[in-house]
Amino acid sequence: NTSKILDVGSGSGYLTACFARMAEGGQAFGIDHIDTLVQSSIENVKRDDASLLDSGRVVLQVVDGFDGLEEHGPYDAIHVGAAAPSIPQVLVKQLSKGGRMVIPVGPENGAQEIFMVDKDSDGKVSQQAILGVRYVPLTSKAHQLSRA
Question: What pTM was estimated for this model as a whole?
Answer without folding.
Answer: 0.91
